[in-house]
């Protein structure tokens, strides 16, 4: 299982030496903390640049934000470091908005999903999310046994996601990068059917025709994306710190990452977009 390690001292000391000691001390006394980019649409440097994938975008965003880190940075009551306080440029009525959240998991732990949802709800000051997309961890091996075990993890986790939909906390749920055989197995096992398959076409240019046909037949929306799978947590942070410090990574493990987008419905306007990342202290 992918379990990269990250030392908060590396990140902060590389970015803003003037305020690093105070922030590091606060974070290292915690068992876990979150980094929230805030609305990255506020940064013209990011909006005007085309990125190869979302990991490159996140890396550039964090690099930019930590370079501007100053003494006013605070650690919130839930261990959240909000890097940009402006979450949305314009205020809209909640009924006019659609919130979509994609969660990148490092394990088949339902707590990672609920933690990501709760963090997003808390930051956006709302009670529910219109759509969640789950990016499952990689299959650990190429054998039929490994594939079967991986699929059991997917279905088991999905059954718990269904509870979120039934409770109204999440309106609809989808998946990321499931091939036809996996999507079919999940669909047949699910009571709440996946409404979306977020599919990466890098390397194949188009979604396989048989997957397209299955999606049409079962009313599953196929959306393409440029998110790497698995999400390269460790590489993102290594990129930010490259050539800027010489501290060995240790202490905290990235647990999950989530990206939310807030759309103004019927107007195709993205009101807000941001990343939230969870870190837990090593046991």
Automatic annotation (TrEMBL):
GO BP terms: glutathione biosynthetic process
A Pfam family this chain is assigned to: Aldo_ket_red
Key words, A-Z: Glutathione biosynthesis
InterPro entries for this protein: Gclm, NAD(P)_OxRdtase_dom_sf, NADP_OxRdtase_dom
Keyword DNA-binding: no
One function term, GO molecular function aspect: glutamate-cysteine ligase catalytic subunit binding
Subunit: Heterodimer of a catalytic heavy chain and a regulatory light chain.
One cellular component (GO) term of this entry: glutamate-cysteine ligase complex
Protein name (record): GCS light chain
Gene3D superfamilies, sorted: NADP-dependent oxidoreductase domain
Annotated NADP-dependent oxidoreductase domain residues: 83-224
Family: Belongs to the aldo/keto reductase family. Glutamate--cysteine ligase light chain subfamily.
Pathway listed: Sulfur metabolism; glutathione biosynthesis; glutathione from L-cysteine and L-glutamate: step 1/2
């Amino acid at each position: 299982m992918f379990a990269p390690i990250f030392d908060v001292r590396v990140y902060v000391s590389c970015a803003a030496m003037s305020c690093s000691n105070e922030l590091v001390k606060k974070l290292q006394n915690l068992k876990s903390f979150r980094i929230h980019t805030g609305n990255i649409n506020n940064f013209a440097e990011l909006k005007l640049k085309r990125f190869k994938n979302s990991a490159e975008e996140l890396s550039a965003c964090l690099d930019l934000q930590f370079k501007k880190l100053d003494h006013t940075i605070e650690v919130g009551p839930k261990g959240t470091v909000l890097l940009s306080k402006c979450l949305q440029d314009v205020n809209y009525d909640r009924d006019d908005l659609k919130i979509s959240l994609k969660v990148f998991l490092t394990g088949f732990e339902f707590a990672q999903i609920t933690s990501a949802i709760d963090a997003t709800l808390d930051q956006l000051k709302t009670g529910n999310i219109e759509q969640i997309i789950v990016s499952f961890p990689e299959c650990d091996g190429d054998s039929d046994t490994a594939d079967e075990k991986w699929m059991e993890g997917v279905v088991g986790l999905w059954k718990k996601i269904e509870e979120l939909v039934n409770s109204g906390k999440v309106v609809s749920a989808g998946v990321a990068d499931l091939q036809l055989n996996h999507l079919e197995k999940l669909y047949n096992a699910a009571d709440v059917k996946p409404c979306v398959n977020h599919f990466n076409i890098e390397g194949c240019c188009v979604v396989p025709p048989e997957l397209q046909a299955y999606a049409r037949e079962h009313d599953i929306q196929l959306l393409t994306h440029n998110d790497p799978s698995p999400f390269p947590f460790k590489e993102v942070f290594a990129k930010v710190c490259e050539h800027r410090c010489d501290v060995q990574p240790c202490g905290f493990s990235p647990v999950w990452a989530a990206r939310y987008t807030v759309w103004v419905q019927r107007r195709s306007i993205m009101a807000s977009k941001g990343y939230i990342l969870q870190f837990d202290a090593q046991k």
